[in-house]
Amino acid sequence: MSLLAKATIDDVAALAGVSMKTVSRVVNKEPNVRASTREKVQAAIAQLEYRPSQSARSLAANRSYVLGLLYDNPSASYVIDVQEGALQTCRRAGYDLLIHPCRHNEPELADEVLALVRHSRVDGLILTPPLSDITQLVDGLVEAGVPFVRLSPTENKQACPYVQTNDQEAAYDMTCRLLELGHERIGFIAGHPDHRAVAERYQGYLAALKESRIKFDKTLVVQGYNSFDSGRECAAQLLGMNDRPTAIFASNDDMAAGVIIEAHHRGLAMPAELSVAGFDDTPVAHQIYPSLTTVSQPITEMASKAAELLVKQLQGKAVQMPAAIMSCRVIVRDSTGKR
Amino acid sequence: MSLLAKATIDDVAALAGVSMKTVSRVVNKEPNVRASTREKVQAAIAQLEYRPSQSARSLAANRSYVLGLLYDNPSASYVIDVQEGALQTCRRAGYDLLIHPCRHNEPELADEVLALVRHSRVDGLILTPPLSDITQLVDGLVEAGVPFVRLSPTENKQACPYVQTNDQEAAYDMTCRLLELGHERIGFIAGHPDHRAVAERYQGYLAALKESRIKFDKTLVVQGYNSFDSGRECAAQLLGMNDRPTAIFASNDDMAAGVIIEAHHRGLAMPAELSVAGFDDTPVAHQIYPSLTTVSQPITEMASKAAELLVKQLQGKAVQMPAAIMSCRVIVRDSTGKR
DNA sequence: ATGAAAGCGCTAACAC
DNA sequence: GTGTTAGCGCTTTCAT
Fold first, then answer.
1. Which segments constitute the HTH lacI-type domain (chains A, B) (predicted)?
2. With contacts defined as CB-CB under 8 Å, which chain A residues touch B54?
3. Which of A83, A120, A289 sits opposite B261 (nearest CB)?
4. Mean pLDDT of A138-154
5. Confidence of residue A322 (pLDDT cuts 50, 70, 90)
6. What percent of chain A has pLDDT over 90?
7. Rounded CA gap, A314 and A303, in Å?
8. Which residues pair with B188 in a beta bridge?
9. How far does the CA of residue B212 sit from the closest CA of chain A (Å)?
10. What is the 3-class SS of A4-73, one letter each residue?
11. Separation of B66 CA and D9 C1' (Å)
């Protein structure tokens, strides 16, 4: 058991018959090492089970090899997926991931995050919605020169590299499907205004209606706040109308679940009397009755890609600013049907 | 903007007119510093906004000030809650948290984790179910002398400090309630055998039945695997019986959600024709129809407490091995009612 | 109660 | 292509 061994770079250098610096070059994949030398060193590393000390290299290089992941999202599954994606890249690139839940409406958020960067030795940050659109935070990071990337930002897109999905297009597709099913009165529950990425899904709904021959009725659009409870309240409002909608499209699954509950309590059969659609494909979507037609996003891939962009940036490689755009896909389940 | 300042321990020492070592004593709350000296130093620290460099102290002290959180749990909300609790303690105690999802049935799990400890400079580990009961892992950590704590272990309890809940008692209570509602045929869906903490809830069900005048019918107990789908399959089996149960108690909420779906598909009214109970109080419990009667555990507090025990251990303080036992509570919602 | 000196294991800057 | 020399900012002895 070589658990106590703790080989250092000097041990490797001695065994390989080279200098410390050469070992360092091999470890850090720097150029200017002869192939044969590299192999000797690698053999020594393997034999001694040498692993560089992160603290030593952090101290010497003044970098932490830690990425910070910032989030303020009530959806546990979203956060877990983002973590998973970020971790995949971190493992590949030799970084650690520091998770940092915070409050997007905390007035001193920017200071808090800058303190994290300064004191908790984080080399760069990954911002997720709704933090991606907190102007004060984004500006603060740019000003302080902190490397960062964002998931699904909706504004200030030149501030940093980012990854996003075609949400609006997917919302457009979903609305078109409902129209094709014969629905003419389609209620829409808008997302939390602070959570721009969700809020903007409304544009897709609008676009689809404009293309159709249906006249837009603004009383069919109600403001939600992304939570199950707000979804239920919005549904109560929509379903209480004299000429109630035959379909309701909620900007996320939690709200759609609220719609379904409210419909159950009103004794409405779904999809016979009411079609319901959501967005996100969270676990609840297939755990409720009827199972929810929704839109799935490649969250893990987005996060993994975002972390890659950040690592590239940290390695000094130019990152293409036009960013990565990934595709959502509509998942049809049992909650939608013909009018 | 003192963002570039980067005061070091020398700067503080100079300003306070003391030696580096004295500053170090103050920062680390060591004894043998006169109160007046301490104050001078603290003033200097405040004025310079000094924060110790983690990498420097890690290198010098040969500790990382990082705790590792290990998990392999399909419930995103459980993991998020555990993270939150662990983070609370980490923030207070000056530690960082490294998250490490893994596979409990991976044959080389123990080696993987030991490599993490050895190379990723983690001072101690927090194990969550079902990892808390992976004998090979637990034994490996003990043998290697790695400090660790566990959440909800069911065996080998002397191996390390731990925190647990009175699951079995809560399962007993829940079963009693169903009996009081007049149910005489209560189906039970057991938890995944690998996930001992969940699996042992069965004992509570058994105990309650034994105390009652109801005769135990083993055909009412089916083996689940903690997932929604397995819950649904088990429900299909139970509800397909000639003399089907009037209540079903599933060992966790995901399986209970599966039961509810299956009942919907069979056109059974709940709770009129079937009562359903779950365990865990995950978000889905109040998002489904009917809302689910279940048991709530103080997950965040457990994780926070566990991290505290670990930190104490790392600080060399003796940890009381009898460990902390926290209470669950039954939450009655709409899925249960009189027979 | 306080201080001086010696590293911790690595990278950076500059030789050669 | 490779080696030498200084630190990075702390904690640890061990003095005093």
1. 7-61
2. 55, 58, 64, 120-121
3. A289
4. 95
5. low
6. 81
7. 16
8. B221, B249
9. 33
10. HCCCCHHHHHHHHCCCHHHHHHHHCCCCCCCHHHHHHHHHHHHHHCCCCCHHHHHHHHCCCCEEEEEECC
11. 19
